[in-house]
Amino acid sequence: MPSDLLLRDEPLDSPASRDLIALLDAEIASRYPEPGALQFRLDPDEVAPGRGAFVVAFAGDLAVACGGVRVIDGGAAEVKRMFVVPAQRGRGVAGRVLAVLEERARGLGATRLILETGTRQPEAIALYARSGFARIEPFGEYVGAPLSVCMGKSLAVP
């Protein structure tokens, strides 16, 4: 893991956030090329202070990873738009981003984290499983989506 990795909150529409999301969207589109397979949406107000957070990891001046969390109903918060640039994968960066998102969710009063990833993202599924997530029934827009894998985790006090 880069020793100079800095994680900080960024607006969803900041240049660093937009650049990482464009890379994420391109990778997801390459893994799921069939029409209608892509189901993602996140509006800046959903990760605005008090409602959520969007975190970008920087190695020096280079934005290398991102992830967001948004509060939904029933004490749950949803992890959104997790991504690590390929050159930084396998170095613990995603785990650090996810840990910060868990902290942000707790700070927003969430007692449970949920997320959606895809069947063609075994690395993401493995990361979430290592981080204490287990498969749950599909929720929201993912109900009936055959390529979706939904996972959840209690945010008990660490």
Would you mind describing this structure in some detail?
By secondary structure, the protein is of the alpha+beta class. It has one domain (5-154): 3-Layer(aba) Sandwich (Aminopeptidase), CATH 3.40.630. The protein contains three helices and seven strands; from the N terminus they run E-H-E-E-E-H-E-H-E-E. The chain has helices at 15-31, 93-107, 122-130; strands at residues 5-9, 52-59, 62-71, 76-84, 112-118, 134-135, 148-154. A seven-stranded mixed beta sheet has the order 1-2-3-4-5-7-6, with helices on both faces. Helix 2 links the parallel strand 4 (76-84) and strand 5. The longest helix has 17 residues, at 15-31.
Q: Briefly, what is this?
A:
With 158 residues, this protein is an alpha+beta fold. It has helices at residues 15-31, 93-107, 122-130, and strands at residues 5-9, 52-59, 62-71, 76-84, 112-118, 134-135, 148-154.
Name its key features:
seven-stranded mixed beta sheet; 7 strands; 158 residues; Aminopeptidase; alpha+beta; 3 helices; 30% strand
